[in-house]
Amino acid sequence: MSLVQEKLNLLKQNTHNSVNSLLEGTALAAAKKVDAKIENGQEIGLLEGIPFGIKDVYMLQGTYTTASSDLLKKYKAAYTATAIQKLLDAGAIPLVKENCDSFGHGSSSENTIFGAVKNAINPDLVAGGSSGGSAVNVAKDCTIFSIGGDTGGSIRQPAGYNKIYGFKPTYGRISRYGLMAYASSTDCVGPIAKSIEDVRIVLNVMSGKDPRDQTSYVSEAVSTDLKATQIKTVGYYKNFIENNAISTEIQTDFLATLEKIKAKGIAVKALDFFDADILVSTYYTLAMAETASNLSRLDGTNYGARIEGANLKDTYSITRSENFSEETKRRVVGGNQVLSQGFSDEIYLKAQNLRNQISARFTEDFKDVDIVLSPVTPASPPEIGESLQDPLAMYLSDAYTVGFSLGGLPALTIPKGTSTGIQITADKKKDAEVLQFANFLNEIL
């Protein structure tokens, strides 16, 4: 009870706009039950009584689930997401629904009706996104861990900006049922925490096949032995490092990290890859197309705040125009364009073909290397307001994360190596190897 109350008090004092709604009553009632079990001498699990946060795009029955949008600001979830239910079943206690870019559309957590989330280290800077509130709450010790959502870097990038751990597992390892869909083919559920061990525990609890998500699969638990790394060769993409977009500081720190790895007897291999602008344009073409399709259901008829017009068509138009953020409208319009007749063959199908080429290149690369290392972002977090003035710059901040999303690969941000962290990536379903190598880097950096 005391731990839950302590975290609730911190959340109430929060000045970083990381909180959308507190779940105080639910949390205190759950804490009482755990205290009673302890007093009765009953055994409790690893997560029992542990307070956590939930990005406000996950269903939790009976709670406001707003996606930080005007359209859903009064929507209450009718059911609970599978990943969240597994945590509840393990005894973890939800404290807060956390601020984020509306519908996950953004890389700064500024596109939200609740005000821009402020960076945990420097409140003048953005927190990153879209899982900015989740990252800040962990970094500020308001939650022990939080559940973010990663479509193109939305866990890894804010984790890097706030100097904590953020893990995007292999696509399908954790059920997406109950997560508001952004781009269904890359959406991933993942933990944000302050240690690799916390990431491991939460990952194991949430993982597994779910009949309600046909992309999910049965996976082996990640062992407690995180020291058993068998990594012999580490790769990195030359064009991520040898370009004008990366800051000198991050470039220098990343190359120094590679030297420390070499000094431990691990081979380091430079790899060729697609240019960052190709990765970004491929990702955003597909993501915008999928979000245009996924958000077509939000017209005020079945969900959300309906604004009446002169007729039904007018009602749909006004409801969506008034209740979607500028960034959401930008992505819906872009998605509808690339799917429209005359453009779908030229743009959308070309992006699908490029995605297949990207995945094939990953398959080839992982025949030569065990792990790929990369910076998380090309530059330090911008000041609040900058990203809103330059959406293209915001998209390009995802240059080092979107490729791994397109490949469905497991990727972890650790707060070491550069000012915005190092990203560790392995082949599909090798989530354990990522965490093991992260543990090794923690020891040498």
Short description:
The chain is of the alpha/beta class and 445 residues long. It has 16 helices and eleven strands.
Features:
Amidase signature (AS) enzymes; single chain; 445 residues; alpha/beta; 11-stranded mixed sheet
The CATH homologous superfamily of the largest domain is named: Amidase signature (AS) domain
* Low-confidence spans: none
Number of helices: 16
- The top-level CATH class of the largest domain is Alpha Beta
Question: Percent of residues in beta strands?
Answer: 5-15%
Structural description of this entry:
By secondary structure, this protein is α/β, with parallel strands linked by helices. The protein has 3 domains: 2-206, Amidase signature (AS) enzymes (Alpha-Beta Complex), CATH 3.90.1300; 233-279 and 357-444, no CATH class; 293-346, no CATH class. 40% of the residues lie in helices and 12% in strands. It contains 16 helices and 11 strands. It has helices at 2-13, 24-39, 82-89, 132-139, 156-161, 196-206, 238-241, 248-262, 276-294, 312-323, 326-339, 344-368, 386-389, 391-396, 402-406, 431-444, and strands spanning 19-22, 51-55, 93-98, 145-150, 165-168, 188-193, 233-237, 267-271, 371-375, 411-414, 422-425. Strands 1-3-2-4-6-5-10-11-9-7-8 form an 11-stranded mixed beta sheet, sandwiched between helices. Helix 9 (276-294) crosses helix 11 and helix 9 crosses helix 12. The chain is globular and about 65 Å long. The chain starts with a helix and ends with a helix.
Element layout with pairings:
Blueprint lengths: L1 H12 L5 E4 L1 H16 L11 E5 L26 H8 L3 E6 L33 H8 L5 E6 L5 H6 L3 E4 L19 E6 L2 H11 L26 E5 H4 L6 H15 L4 E5 L4 H19 L17 H12 L2 H14 L4 H25 L2 E5 L10 H4 L1 H6 L5 H5 L4 E4 L7 E4 L5 H14 L1
Parallel strand pairs: 2-3, 2-4, 7-8, 7-9
Antiparallel strand pairs: 1-3, 4-6, 5-6, 5-10, 9-11, 10-11
